[in-house]
Design goal:
- The chain is 69% helix and 0% strand.
- The chain has helices at residues 4-7, 10-27, 32-37, 43-56, 62-67, 73-76, 83-99, 104-120.
- Helix 2 packs across helix 4, helix 2 (10-27) crosses helix 7 (83-99) and helix 7 runs antiparallel to helix 8 (104-120).
- The chain binds protoporphyrin IX containing FE (HEM).
- Residues 34, 37-39, 45, 48-49, 52, 72, 75-76, 79, 81, 85-86, 89, 114, 117-118, 121 line the site of protoporphyrin IX containing FE.
């Protein structure tokens, strides 16, 4: 059985997904408030998202290798993230997956684990 990492096209596909995710965040009106939490230059965070997703989707654990952890709560702690911000983030990810022509099966398969992961980042009511 193929991993989500493989279904997305491996390293190249997951890199494209990370870039597309921030492109969607930058262009979606509803995502303006979460886009503003990020710096002007998204290249570093896009690279970090790629490193993280690589391992999380079943490929090489690049973020763990580089940073020695896969805990993302600390880097998010300084931002005010509630349900609205979480849901905007997830909507950008759904759109990015659609833009990459990911199958509906893959999108459906990632839905719950992706929600649970994003929910961990919420730190305000
Ligand atoms: C599945 C959920 C999420 C994943 C996988 C994820 C992934 C990441 C990663 C890998 C980083 C870089 C961390 C580092 O510095 O090492 C990051 C930073 C960040 N994330 Fe998330 N994130 C998620 C959810 C969210 C949510 C819900 C928000 C809400 C707005 C958010 C806002 C941010 C911000 C503001 C930064 C810092 C960006 C910067 O330094 O310019 N993230 N995220």
């Amino acid at each position: 059985m193929e991993t989500p990492y493989e279904l997305l096209g491996g390293e190249k596909g997951v890199k494209r997904l990370s870039e597309e995710f921030y492109a969607v965040m930058s262009s979606r009106k509803e995502a303006t408030s979460i886009r503003q939490m990020h710096g002007k230059d998204l290249s570093l965070v896009s690279e970090k998202l790629f490193l993280f997703l690589s391992g999380w989707l079943g490929g090489p654990a690049l973020y763990l290798e580089k940073y020695g952890t896969i805990c993302l709560s600390s880097p998010h702690a300084k931002y005010q993230i509630g349900e609205d911000e979480r849901d905007q983030w997830l909507a950008c990810m759904d759109q990015a997956l659609l833009n990459l022509d990911a199958s509906y099966e893959l999108i459906a398969m990632l839905k719950e684990p992706m929600f649970n992961l994003a929910d961990v980042m919420t730190n305000k009511v």
